[in-house]
User: What shape does this take?
Amino acid sequence: MNLDMLMYLIPSLIMFACGVFGFITRRNLIAILISLELMLNAVDLNFVIFNRFLFPGELEGMFFTLFSIGIAAAETALAIAIIINIFRAVKNVDVKEITKLKF
Assistant: This one.
């Protein structure tokens, strides 16, 4: 692994670590969703980095990234719809309050 590749992988690692930390420590559903999106963006960045350095003439990493961005957009729309329905039922988006939805 050369130094150029490492210079791109370190910010991706920091992004992913911040996303994992936010996902584990946050109680607000919107903050958890933002942390999840941060992790997905770090993975997309890794797709592009590894494609650029391992297969410089190919575009598979770029296509995987575009596909992943589309999946992330659909996942975000669905998650926001679920969060809105939870807010209507509980009047709060705190993870601890979701247990009130149980019968």
About this structure: The mean pLDDT is 90. The CA atoms of residues 90 and 102 lie 11 Å apart. The chain has one domain: 3-101.
